[in-house]
Amino acid sequence: MTALRSRANLPPKDRHSPSAAPFTAEDGPSDSTSKPEPYLSDPEEGPSRLSLLDILRVLGGLFLLSSTLSYFITGDSILWGYRPAITRPARIKAWLRGPYDLTDAQLSIFNGTEPTLPILVAVNGTIYDVSASPHFYGPGGSYSFFAGRDATRSFVTGCFDTDLNGDLRGVEEMFMPLEGEAGDDPTKEGRRERKLRREREKRTARKKVEETVRGWERMFDGGKDGKYFKVGKVDRGPGSGWEGWGEVKELCQKAREGRPRRTAEEVGGRG
């Protein structure tokens, strides 16, 4: 007991005698202001990299954020209004069933009067499913007269009472100027020029018909929001019962009245 008290009472300089182990950096910092050394990665491990799981987490977070914003802004969609085909049962059902190959007579059955059948329309021989808009194409709808038929001619002329068929023969005339009074064409050169001009106008008019038809095809083949889609073709081949459109029809009144007029120079044979 006396020895312990005598050791505790030793002066500070005696506590660290020369025989004691010297103080090293491993025992702790000698200066309270010293800074720790920066962390150095093991050169054998290489630089730190993102794992695949980290990337998936980031992408998942961005998708969740985008979906949340889309729902709050649009009110009903997590994809900013876009609805892929996989979310449309009607389109999936059509894919599983396969393409339609219908005659005009068979196509007429798909006019919306049978609830178990889709509503179909045809443009230039191609069939489209418009079941997504029964209020337009179904019974009583504002465009119900298009359902169950190929009404391409009326799409061009705008005559929905007389041109509900797919006959495009002669419809290009609606884009060609009226002949008017051209006089006697005193020279052979003048008559030849009029003929060449007429041929140029017919080619231009046919291109306008094609552009109009393509516009309707684009509208039904996906539409603005993808709710309409192509499902098949109208069969007008041998054995289908197809006998043609008959005689070439005259332009309907609306199409005739909308034809352009020639200028005075064109009437005189100088255009």
UniProtKB/TrEMBL annotation:
GO terms for cellular component: endomembrane system; membrane. SUPFAM superfamilies: Cytochrome b5-like heme/steroid binding domain. InterPro entries: Cyt_B5-like_heme/steroid-bd, Cyt_B5-like_heme/steroid_sf, MAPR/NEUFC/NENF-like. Residues 185-206 have a biased composition (Basic and acidic residues). Residues 102-183 form the Cytochrome b5 heme-binding domain. Residues 1-46, 178-206 are annotated as: Disordered. Pfam families: Cyt-b5. PANTHER family: CALCUTTA CUP-RELATED, MEMBRANE-ASSOCIATED PROGESTERONE RECEPTOR COMPONENT-RELATED. Belongs to the cytochrome b5 family. MAPR subfamily. This is Cytochrome b5 heme-binding domain-containing protein. It comes from Letharia lupina.
